[in-house]
């Protein structure tokens, strides 16, 4: 996908893309690490095996993305391209184990106070966003300006799981429940990161890349659709059936 007049490189890119990945790492670590610590301290039952596999695959994806950016930064495009094969393997594994983890955990939590079957809509939207944008990025790997923006977008749209754990509770306490309130709790981090990315391209290029616009609009639309389903009465019995309850 070409974006006529869009400069493929800028001298600030080497630092900006690392900053974006660092922000994603921050959200994941701040969201999941305290939860894991509390889980251990309270002697709760061990996480299902699929959760550990999902975590391993997710962290592997983030490590690969970070490594790929560092390789480009150091001029080792040759190694970057060879490692791209690992991305082609990890991307579908992210979707497969993300889906399996969502269904199994939702199934186990169903009869507990933590049970929230309709939340499956949020989980499915994240997986659809990641799978779609990661696939598009891999197909457009011959166009670096589109490829790297779609890869970052794909990762942003699945990082909300960490950010929502980090500050979702505070947002809920501040604004309450409702369509847009739930959207804020789950997805305001994605919106902010996409906005930062858009602002950067406008500052450095004076325009947005067409692949970025298409990917961002698709991802944000999926998230609005997910929250609509989450708050709609018809979705609860559907979600309950999908998780096997």
Give a structural overview.
The protein is mainly alpha-helical. Helices cover 80% and strands 0% of the residues. The chain contains 8 helices and no strands. The protein has helices at residues 13-41, 49-73, 77-109, 120-139, 144-175, 179-205, 210-231, 235-242. Helix 2 packs antiparallel against helix 3 (77-109). The radius of gyration is 18 Å and the shape is globular.
Largest sheet data: none
Overall radius of gyration: 18 Å
Helix content: over 70%
Question: Shape, please?
Answer: globular
Distance between the termini: 43 Å
**Structure class:** mainly alpha
What percentage of the residues does DSSP assign to strands (E)? Answer: under 5%
Q: How many extended strands?
A: 0
Note poorly predicted spans: none
SSE order, as H and E? Answer: HHHHHHHH
The DSSP helix count reads 8
- What is the average per-residue confidence, as pLDDT, rounded to a whole number? 93
List the helices and strands and how they pair.
Elements: H1 13-41, H2 49-73, H3 77-109, H4 120-139, H5 144-175, H6 179-205, H7 210-231, H8 235-242
Task: Write out key terms for the chains shown.
mainly alpha; about 240 residues; globular
Summarize the structure.
The chain has 245 residues and is mainly α. It has 8 helices and no strands.
